[in-house]
Structures are given as C-alpha cells and as structure tokens.
Write a structure and sequence with these properties.
Layout: H1 2-25, H2 31-47, H3 49-66, H4 70-76, H5 88-93, H6 96-109, H7 122-150, E1 156-157, E2 171-172, H8 174-198, H9 203-208, H10 212-234, E3 237-240, E4 245-247, E5 254-258, H11 265-287
Antiparallel strand pairs: 1-2, 3-4, 3-5
Helix pairs in contact: 1-2, 2-3, 2-6, 3-7, 3-8, 6-7, 7-8, 7-10, 7-11, 8-10, 10-11
Length: 288
C-alpha cells in the first residue's frame, strides 16, 4: 500500500511539472497559475490516479474549448484573455475545495484506492462523491459558458426567461445546458474508466460504480444552473454604451441589465462549486 502511494507520488511530481510547464508555454496558465496548478495536480495524482484524471480532463477540455471561437468571444467577454490564460486565483477557485477533500481522503485511506461503497465507509464515499461533483460542476460551468457564447440562439436570463445580450451573467441557452450535462458525463465516464483500471472492488460494488456517470452528468447540469442563478442575482451585468459590450462593473456609461454587485465571477464559481459538491456528496451516500 505504501509502495503504491510512493510510486504515485513520484509520478505525480514528474507529470505535474511537465503539464504545468506546457500549460505555461501555451499560455493556458500564467506564472502564478502554473505554480498553483503544479501543486494542485501533484496532490491529486499522488492521492489517486482517478482524482488526477478528473482534474486533467477538466483542465484540458476546458482549455481547448476556451480557445475555440476566440475572435467571437473577444467581442463578447470583457475579461477575455488570449488562450484563456488563468492565474492562481482562477486555478484555486476551480480546485481548492476538491484539493482539501482529496487530502482528507488520502489521509483517511493511507493512500489506498477505495471504491464508492457506504457499507465500507460512509464518510469516504461522501468525500469521493464530493470530489466528483466538484469537477462535474467546474467542467459543466466552463463547457456551458464557452459553448453558450458560440451559440446562434439568443440567451435568456435564468430568473425571468427574457432574452438578453450574450455575455450577461446568468444567461442560458439550450446548447449551453446540454453542454453542461455532457461535461459532467465526461467527468463521470473518466472516473469509471480509470477506476476500472486502477482500483480493485468487490464484484457487486464494481457495477454500482457505473452510476457515477449519470450522477456526474446531473451534477454538471445542476452546477451550471446554480452558477447561472447566482450570476443573475448577485453578480452585476450591464451594457456599456461606449464600448458596445456587456460589462461587470457599474459606470456612468453602463446601463444595468441584471444582478447586484455582491459577488464577482470567481466568487460565483466558488459558491456554485461548493453547493454542487455538497449536493453530490449527499446523493452518493444514498446511491452507493
């Protein structure tokens, strides 16, 4: 057991360094983001190959989608960065909660891989479920936003269902919501496939792990909806008549569209992730 943990630790440091360096080179992360990403990634992989896989799938798919349709997104999003470059704040907003849970699971299991099974351990099952929900939410929110901005359909504000301009916080499209569910599905599928290759479970428990896929798909959609609801109510959106685009800060030239100036984008992401993590954790206690 300790030998397996030591091997994962060595693999985690080498692989995390290579991926963080590549992300920095390709401008997916800035310097602070690369450092934070390296630490977070190393912890995830050392704790479990499954946890590392969830993080990597989220990071790579989100980074690729961010770069699709850059010209169109640049005209819509005031915070657009070339290549979707993320800093340490954005990295931790999408990984801090999961990292804490990953460390707790590793400490409780002594580094041993475990299946979702409340008969063996209710607490560990709940914590693992929370990690799955965390990345299903992060992936779902990112896919929803990136694909939603490219949609030809006019988005609707989730609180009133009135059509609003693209880039408005809390605006949703059918394509975006379907993307959120698909993103969660990919997270669940990743967890199951890597788990089958790296974790030994009792025969009856193995097949129950397949339920992670629909659970993660639901978490992806749920997380996106929570994020949109928070964005529409607690995050300010306005239209700047001077810059001719939707902005997130009040100014004399800005006409309010929706929301209050209580949370910024990172705070909205963090709250929606926390809520989805808790909901998925509880759901796993009943399902597994």
């Amino acid at each position: 057991m300790m030998e397996g943990f030591l091997i994962r630790s060595v693999v985690s440091v080498a692989l995390s360094f290579l991926i963080a360096a590549r992300a920095y080179k390709h401008r997916s992360l800035d310097g602070s983001g690369a450092l934070a990403g390296f630490l977070v990634m190393a912890i995830h992989i050392a704790a479990s190959y499954r946890f590392g896989a969830l993080l990597l799938v989220f990071f790579f798919t989100s980074s690729k989608l961010t770069k699709v349709g850059e010209e169109k997104k640049r005209s819509i999003d005031e915070d657009f960065k070339e290549g979707g470059q993320r800093n340490w704040v954005q990295v931790l907003a999408n990984s801090a909660i999961a990292t804490i849970l990953v460390v707790l699971v590793a400490k409780m299991t002594g580094g041993k891989e475990r299946c979702l099974d409340t008969k063996e351990s209710t607490l560990i099952t709940g914590l693992i479920g929370g990690i799955i929900g965390h990345y299903a939410c992060c992936n779902g929110d990112t896919w929803s936003s990136e694909i939603g901005m490219l949609s030809n359909a006019q988005p609707r504000l989730i609180t009133t269902f009135k059509t609003v301009r693209k880039g408005t916080n809390g605006a949703v499209t059918v394509e975006g919501l379907l993307a959120a569910a698909a993103a969660g599905f990919v997270i669940g599928l990743t967890y199951v496939i890597v788990g089958l290759l790296t974790v030994e479970c009792a025969h009856d428990v193995i097949w129950r792990q397949l339920l992670v896929i629909p659970v993660a798909a639901a978490a992806g959609l749920c997380g996106s909806l929570i994020d949109s609801l928070l964005g529409a109510t607690l995050q300010f959106s306005g239209y700047c008549t001077l810059r001719k685009r939707v902005v997130g800060k009040r100014a004399p030239t800005v006409v309010k569209i929706s929301g209050m100036s209580i949370l910024d984008n990172n705070a909205v992401n963090a709250v929606s992730v926390l809520a989805t993590t808790l909901l998925t954790s509880v759901a796993c206690l009943y399902i597994f």
